[in-house]
Amino acid sequence: MSRDILETFPNPKPDRDYVIEHTAPEFTSVCPRTGQPDFATIVLTYVPDQLCLELKSLKLYYQSFRNMGIFYEDVINRMLDDFVAVVQPRWMEVRGEFNTRGGISSVVTAEYRADEEDDE
Amino acid sequence: MSRDILETFPNPKPDRDYVIEHTAPEFTSVCPRTGQPDFATIVLTYVPDQLCLELKSLKLYYQSFRNMGIFYEDVINRMLDDFVAVVQPRWMEVRGEFNTRGGISSVVTAEYRADEEDDE
Amino acid sequence: MSRDILETFPNPKPDRDYVIEHTAPEFTSVCPRTGQPDFATIVLTYVPDQLCLELKSLKLYYQSFRNMGIFYEDVINRMLDDFVAVVQPRWMEVRGEFNTRGGISSVVTAEYRADEEDDE
Amino acid sequence: MSRDILETFPNPKPDRDYVIEHTAPEFTSVCPRTGQPDFATIVLTYVPDQLCLELKSLKLYYQSFRNMGIFYEDVINRMLDDFVAVVQPRWMEVRGEFNTRGGISSVVTAEYRADEEDDE
Amino acid sequence: MSRDILETFPNPKPDRDYVIEHTAPEFTSVCPRTGQPDFATIVLTYVPDQLCLELKSLKLYYQSFRNMGIFYEDVINRMLDDFVAVVQPRWMEVRGEFNTRGGISSVVTAEYRADEEDDE
Amino acid sequence: MSRDILETFPNPKPDRDYVIEHTAPEFTSVCPRTGQPDFATIVLTYVPDQLCLELKSLKLYYQSFRNMGIFYEDVINRMLDDFVAVVQPRWMEVRGEFNTRGGISSVVTAEYRADEEDDE
Amino acid sequence: MSRDILETFPNPKPDRDYVIEHTAPEFTSVCPRTGQPDFATIVLTYVPDQLCLELKSLKLYYQSFRNMGIFYEDVINRMLDDFVAVVQPRWMEVRGEFNTRGGISSVVTAEYRADEEDDE
Amino acid sequence: MSRDILETFPNPKPDRDYVIEHTAPEFTSVCPRTGQPDFATIVLTYVPDQLCLELKSLKLYYQSFRNMGIFYEDVINRMLDDFVAVVQPRWMEVRGEFNTRGGISSVVTAEYRADEEDDE
Amino acid sequence: MSRDILETFPNPKPDRDYVIEHTAPEFTSVCPRTGQPDFATIVLTYVPDQLCLELKSLKLYYQSFRNMGIFYEDVINRMLDDFVAVVQPRWMEVRGEFNTRGGISSVVTAEYRADEEDDE
Amino acid sequence: MSRDILETFPNPKPDRDYVIEHTAPEFTSVCPRTGQPDFATIVLTYVPDQLCLELKSLKLYYQSFRNMGIFYEDVINRMLDDFVAVVQPRWMEVRGEFNTRGGISSVVTAEYRADEEDDE
Question: What is the pTM of this model?
Answer without folding.
Answer: 0.93
